């Protein structure tokens, strides 16, 4: 085996703190690595994928030593700054998708999603997480337009044909639930789980005990592979490991993996200041995804200081995996408009926190998964549905490394490889136009 070195050309900068992190009490972070350590497996990246890989390795071989490192503190990455929907069903079942192959594909997608949800349900039970962290409440999808309503009805029918429970809601029912008249209809699916994402990833990280250890603020600067093992270099330390799991999402490309195959897209969220529960009728806790895939997500949460509304909307192409001040500002303006459209009587509510986060997509919507090099495995680029898919990718990568067979592993191994993106600079223009067109298509949704 020839020795190889993969340098990180770029390290993550996650940008403004998320509202989720801001709402949590202070935590003692795990120290940065400042020494030389030796371990069986090193996992780079402590998001959904990396944390799930560590948990699964510990399940499969409790004696295996595992070191997890993250460039930042746990919770600052995309896994701690998303909208917190763990969704068990495919976002969209294309019309005409009733063939045997399509039905099997839908079933596989559901298995991938539900494996992740079961993984967290088990951790929730073992660690006695309360419903502010992990709430198996189901989720809604809301339509703002007639076209959105037609879409929800068609989706409901397709779900029923697959034997999946769901319930359509009319305008009066959505008003009763949300306290606003803006939504024309809704669809409830009971299998989704709503999480406080930063609290959940922190809770998992804090549950690690010897022989699983975690070092925060410890970026991997280089990975060297040789027949004797791997060496991961960090600013003040060195990790000698048998094998590496790369769980760095789009930053796999920063090491040269998936080069020219990952599309770096950001999406954004804003969280209101707290308000008195009596200010807005309806239920005090619910979450709804849009009726159109590129539309706007809304969530109501509550805490000791009152209730808040979260809005997630807008997609941008950010090839450097960073969002600048101007992009953040434009996303904020969009949020205010979408918020006022949904809650016209509460448009005076101020957004207390605004943030963005990175997602890695691929042209053919498959993850960057599997053994990339001798001793290097990947669970990256899960196309924006990381709550479930990145988690399952991490589980499947751990199983692949150990040689454990499962149906989940079969599904991940059967994914095609990511296809090359069209040539730059066309890709930049193409991606921006495509996102703009699809956002336009989503319209008021
Ligand atoms: C605003 C927003 C809302 C979203 N809402 C949802 C939702 O409701 N449901 C859903 O399913 N998905 C949602 N997503 C997508 C989801 O958050 C991501 O797909 C998921 O978090 C990806 O998980 P991951 O573990 O693969 O990657 P990440 O969470 O990105 O973790 C990768 C980690 O690797 C670390 N890293 C990178 N490079 C290095 C290095 N060189 N050395 C060490 N560490 C490194 C990073 O710091 C990071 O912590 C949303 C995303 C955003 C931004």
From TrEMBL:
Classification via Pfam families: DAO (PF01266)
GO terms, molecular function: oxidoreductase activity
Keywords, comma-separated and alphabetical: Oxidoreductase
Annotated coiled-coil segments of the chain: none
EC number(s) per entry: 1.-.-.-
InterPro entries in alphabetical order: FAD-dep_OxRdtase, FAD/NAD-bd_sf
FAD dependent oxidoreductase domain sequence ranges: 40-400
Protein name, as recorded: FAD-binding oxidoreductase
């Amino acid at each position: 085996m020839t020795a190889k070195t993969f340098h990180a050309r770029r390290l993550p900068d996650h940008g403004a703190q998320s509202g989720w992190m801001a709402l949590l009490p202070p935590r003692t972070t795990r120290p940065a690595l400042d020494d030389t350590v030796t371990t069986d497996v090193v996992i780079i990246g402590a998001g959904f994928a990396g944390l799930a890989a560590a948990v699964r390795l510990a399940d499969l071989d409790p004696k295996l030593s595992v070191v997890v490192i993250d460039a930042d503190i746990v919770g600052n990455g995309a896994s701690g700054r998303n909208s917190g929907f763990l969704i068990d069903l495919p976002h969209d079942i294309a019309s005409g998708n009733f063939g045997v192959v399509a039905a099997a594909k839908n079933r596989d997608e559901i298995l991938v999603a539900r494996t992740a949800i079961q993984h967290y349900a088990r951790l929730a039970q073992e660690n006695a997480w309360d419903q502010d962290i992990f709430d198996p409440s189901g989720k809604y999808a809301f339509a703002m337009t007639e076209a959105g309503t037609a879409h929800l009805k068609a989706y409901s029918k397709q779900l029923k044909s697959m034997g999946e429970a769901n319930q359509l809601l009319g305008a009066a029912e959505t008003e009763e639930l949300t306290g606003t008249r803006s939504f024309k209809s809704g669809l409830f699916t009971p299998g989704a789980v709503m999480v406080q994402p930063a609290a959940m990833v922190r809770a998992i990280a804090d549950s690690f005990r010897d022989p699983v250890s975690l070092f925060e603020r410890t970026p991997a600067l280089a990975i060297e592979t040789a027949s004797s093992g791997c060496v991961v270099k960090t600013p003040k330390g060195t990790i000698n490991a048998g094998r590496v799991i790369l769980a760095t999402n789009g930053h796999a490309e920063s090491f040269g993996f998936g080069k020219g195959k990952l599309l770096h897209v950001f999406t954004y969220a804003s969280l209101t200041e707290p308000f008195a529960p009596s200010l807005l009728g309806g239920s005090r806790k619910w979450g709804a995804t849009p009726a159109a895939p590129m539309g706007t997500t809304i969530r109501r949460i509550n805490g000791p200081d009152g209730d808040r509304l979260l809005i997630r909307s807008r997609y941008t192409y950010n090839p450097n995996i960073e969002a600048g001040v101007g992009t953040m500002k434009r996303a904020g303006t969009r949020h205010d408009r979408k918020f006022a459209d949904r809650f016209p009587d509460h448009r005076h509510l101020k957004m207390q926190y605004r943030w963005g986060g990175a997602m890695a997509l691929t042209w053919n919507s498959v993850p960057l998964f599997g053994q990339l090099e001798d001793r290097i495995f990947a669970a990256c680029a899960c196309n924006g549905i990381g709550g479930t898919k990145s988690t399952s990718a991490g589980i499947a990568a751990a199983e692949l490394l150990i040689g454990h067979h499962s149906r989940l592993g079969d599904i991940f191994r059967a994914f095609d490889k990511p296809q090359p993106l069209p040539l730059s600079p066309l890709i930049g223009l193409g991606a921006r136009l495509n996102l703009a067109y699809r956002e336009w298509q989503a319209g008021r949704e």
